[in-house]
Amino acid sequence: MSVPSPAAQNLFFEGNRQMQAGELLAAQNSFEQALELAPDMAEALANLALLQERAGDIAAALGSYRRALHLQPANTHIYLNLSGLLIKQKQFDHAELACRQALALDPASPTLLSNLGMLLACVKREAEAEGCYRQALAIDPGYAKARFNLSYILLRQGRLEEGWEAHEARSNDPLGRYFEFPRWQGESVVGKTVLIGFEAGFGDMIQFGRYALQLKAMCAKRVGIVCHPPLKTLLAGLTGIDEVFAYDEAVPKTGWDFWVPPMTLPLHCHTRLDNVPAQIPYLATDSAKVAQWAATLPAGKLRVGLVWQGNPQFENDKDRSLPALSVLAPLLANREVQFVSLQKGFAQETAAQQLAELGVYDAAPTLADFSDTAAVIANLDLVISVDSAVAHLTGALGKPCWLLLADFRTDWRWLTERSDSPWYPHMRLFRQPAGGGWDGVIKQVATALRAWNNGNAVSPAAAGPQ
Asked: H or E segment at 431?
């Protein structure tokens, strides 16, 4: 392999700088120019592949990765990137081969072991995945990524005691550098003040906000919460909460005894499957808003809310969300039901005309925050949703919710092979079959809805595990 010319090396370094600065098109151009001068420059090929992948040019990215590996067959980092791309493309056999080829070069690498474990977890070979994570941790007990990945398997399987412990590997305490009072480590809170910090998404804050009541049951004197701005008004009605701060406000740095991340609360409250705090509802609605929507929504039919897409920034949103409103056609064909769209964002904007044509009442344009959404839900009989914050909101309000779950990388909190949820007693889970696909799920939901509406089913909520 020839040594790249100074000009090629300069272009490569400039491309790296541009990548770090977020100048992706310029960086791609620099790597391409470097490769014109030095076609066997594997590092430039690998970086070009990463940019091609981000741009959605998958075929080109795969070609660049493979050319780079041909030039540097012992480069485990390139194997890692290649396997990651193959996982996203659901080419699992090829991804596993790439992972194992890397491990053959460095069998004691915790990083490679953890990445193989992640792949095996994706294809539900969880016992093998757990073995990879534990092997990685045996080599490096402080390797947080492997411990965090292990937590997902443990939590999904309902092994909560070890799962919550392992889940602590997710955080480097960014809020801990802000607050001037200590993080709660599980000690007595009798007579103390506790501030629940914010983390993750809207749904996480809604789900774990229920622990405010647990803190009060442990005799905490005052409990506050920091949240995303669209949640502030809603969480003011959270049982057990005394103060609510949006994170874009002046959040107090002092004046509290402890702070705690919301997803750490189950650990210190010793939550297991048989004692999940499910005092439902634990959110209150604005009575004036509820009355306003009662007078606004169409009357005379069963009213069913719909959410078919989640936050597009979520890493697994392509799988958890429906690709289009049209996938719900078998459900929407039921004219005995008044469907109400709660879908926000781009999905709502692109489907607005179609909603009108289908007779779906579109509530979303007038929903300013989650307290507005809660007021609409209070007037519905049922909400049918993909894995979204609205599903958590519906469950927390004690309203029946039918949750549509993808087969690929189902979130840990929905456990496995269950049609119910210990977190939300009024929720029923509809899961894709092995290998995915929404058509069968939507037909099943449509059948269940007709049966319920015709009086052939007692309740829209699941009776228990199936």
From this structure: strand 427-431
Q: What would the DSSP string read from start to end of 300-316?
A: SSEEEEEE----TTSTT
Picking from 418, 422, 416, 386, the residue whose alpha carbon sits closest to that of residue 401 is 386
Q: According to the model, what pLDDT value does residue 1 have?
A: 57
CB 375 within 8 A of CB 342: no
Report d(CA 30, CA 52) in Å as an integer: 13
How high does pLDDT run on average in the chain? 92
Cβ neighbour number for residue 163 with a 10 Å cutoff? 22
Q: Is the pLDDT of residue 459 over 70?
A: no
CA distance 319 to 262: 26
b/e 372-403 (16+ beta carbons within 10 angstroms → b): bbbbbbbbbbbbbbbbbbbbbbbbbbbbbbbb
Q: What is the pLDDT of residue 175?
A: 75
pTM passes above 0.85:
yes
3-class DSSP state for residue 148?
helix
From CA 153, how far away is CA 59, in angstroms rounded? 32
Round to whole Å and give the CA distance between 433 and 431.
6
| Banded model confidence at residue 173, pLDDT cuts 50, 70, 90 | low
* pLDDT at position 174: 66
Task: Give the mean pLDDT of 262-284.
Answer: 95
Strand, helix or coil at 329? Answer: helix
pLDDT at residue 245, as a whole number = 95
Q: How confident is the model at residue 172 (pLDDT cuts 50, 70, 90)?
A: low
The reply to whether omega before 4 is within 30° of 0 (cis) is no
| 320: Cα within 13 Å, side-chain hemisphere | 21
Q: What tokens were used for 153?
A: 């398997």
Q: What is the largest CA-CA distance in the chain?
A: 78
List Cα–Cα distances, 37 to 27, 72, 435, in angstroms: 16, 18, 45
| Average pLDDT score over residue span 399-411 | 95
Task: Determine the Cα–Cα distance for residues 293 and 377; give it in Å rounded to an integer.
Answer: 9
d(CA 48, CA 291): 57
